[in-house]
Amino acid sequence: MKSKKESVTVTAPCHVGMIMDGNRRWAKKRLLPRAAGHLSGANNVVPIVDCAFNCGAKIVTLYVFSTENAGRAEDEVASLIDLIRERAEPMAKKLFEIGARVKYSGDRSYFPQDVQDIMADVESHGASEDAPIVNMAMNYSGRAELVRACRLAAESGSITQETIEQNLYTAGLPDPDMIIRTGGEKRLSNFLLYQAAYSELFFTDTLWPDFTVKELKSMFEEYSHRTRRFGKS
Ligand code: IPE
Ligand code: IPE
Ligand code: MG
Predict the structure, then answer these.
(1) Segment 104-127, tens digit of pLDDT
(2) What percent of the chain has pLDDT over 70?
């Protein structure tokens, strides 16, 4: 007979959104420059995504850089763009090794052409249709995404929930079942505003570079015990 503990089934979320917050505080605590915090945060992406997929998730949407982040001090923005330039491809290679495909969501026209070219290259990498997806939100704004989707829907001559959804960056993907925010703040900061309508929200004080697979697994465990009613029962 199975013990009580063994009989618990952990239902992993299909789509997990992650607001990877706390990089600068992580650096400040160590008297390191901000860029070191962002680098340490970038180094944490593959292990966390790998764990999410191993637990059964199929899509991970990562909040990498918000449109509002572009308004930070010039040197910080420059170092973030340099980090994307240097790390996007090696990170994608590691993600390909674990069988994932990578896409980017957001207004990429903001980035220098060479960075846009790297993104296009990474996205063109072949993968099977059922490969898990890493969706990186880059120069992303939930409000701008919605305005764009409404505009495109209007141009198509029909503004309905369906046509708006068809024009979101996440077209064809299910809504996030779960959104995790590290770094202690309890807000969405313009992340997936439309898609988060019924997402289960998880907040932790852990700063993103310190976020571990152990903590991720315990959130998945808690997720599996939550009751999602979608307003219906
Ligand atoms: C998240 O960490 C990374 C980006 C927003 C690019 P922050 O840079 O916001 O770090 P904190 O939240 O100020 O510590
Ligand atoms: C959200 O974090 C954006 C990313 C993690 C990329 P912020 O640090 O920009 O959000 P606020 O300013 O605390 O709301
Ligand atoms: Mg922050």
Answers:
(1) 999 999 999 999 999 999 999 988
(2) 96
Tokens representing 19 are 């607001």
Closest CA to 15 of 150, 105, 145, 110: 105
> From the alpha carbon of 19, which atom of ligand 2 is closest?
5
How far from 163 is each of 32, 104, 167, CA to CA, in Å?
A: 47, 21, 6
The pLDDT value given to residue 77? 98
Q: Residue 230, Cα to own-chain centre: how many angstroms? A: 22
Alpha carbons within 13 A on the beta-carbon side of 212: 3
Q: Whose atoms come closest to the Cα of 187: which ligand?
A: 2
- Quick check: pTM over 0.85? yes
Taking the C-alpha atoms of residue 41 and residue 36, their distance in angstroms, rounded to an integer, is 8
Our answer on whether the CB atom of 94 is closer than 6 Å to any ligand 1 atom is no
Q: Which residue owns the Cα nearest ligand 2 atom 11?
A: 189
